[in-house]
Amino acid sequence: MGRICLQGIPRGYGRHGLKTILLAADIYEHGPEGYTQEWESEKSILLLQESLIRLGHSVFLLERPKQVAEFILEYLKGKPREDLIVFNLVEGYQSRNREGYIPSLCEYLGVSYTGSDTYAQAVCLDKHLLKLICKDLDILTPKSRRLTNTSRTINGLKFPLFIKPNGEGSSLGINEESILHSNFDFERVSDKLFGKYDTLLLEEFIPGEDITIGLLGHSDHYQLTDPARISYSGTTYSEQIKSKSGMPEILNFDLPDGIAEHLKQVSLKIANHLKIIGPARFDFRWQGEEIYFLELNLTPGLSKVYSTLPMCWENSGRSYEEMLKLILISAQERFENSSEQHYGKGIPLYE
Question: What range does the record give for the signal peptide (predicted)?
Fold first, then answer.
């Protein structure tokens, strides 16, 4: 996009002052069809950019990998690295490493970035691996198995089953056919999915309601949103329901206090174990007295138009700009205090 230069790169504003923010983004309208459902719309990104500018920061929006890398390197030639924050809205596609592109680049070059690190991103993108970790933490999650094209058996799981890509978000690959009632369904639907995805997750289907809760902040300073019960048409929270033009699903903030508190405790348990940094969104299934953990998204949608996390945050009595400010504060806290950034900050780039 041609929105690089706003007012020139400023010289330092100091530790707690204004920042230069590189908004690194995949833009939904500019990507290849069929792979961009997780990407934010151009309208949403521009609204986010405007909010950051209202907070007083200088914001540069770039969407090409080469542009992002060159911007960082050029900045570090003569500007204080502590005054730059890379705001990560890069999702990529197909690669299991895709949500770690920006964290890895920034950690290597010794600059601040928003959101969780590469390790947490990779673990959470692999839904099956995260479920194994949750089982070790005694967190209830549906029985499941990971499928590949050479290992695709039900192996003791009981119908009805639910099948979805193991490494995608935004309900990619999920539709009304995702609930399986027979071996015939399993063979037919898995054949379709393996035509596009390398690994699938097969789990026992839990009837009930979808629940979501958001998390901001960093370890010892986490802030949770109000949890929401999600209502939508149809039997699955499918790719077709999730729209870039609006939000056809309804968020209901009416959970019993005991259920809401349980959701918060489970979310904090996972967050502390993985040492994640917000923004994050946890998804659960509620059936009777049981809460089943489903997945954790560490690059959740931040759109004011269609994303659940900002809506849950604002229902908790806080503004969209406050959410963005907290995301930036968490990024800066890691940059200043975390050992994982010591290497990048300690190696001179230019001598």
Answer: none
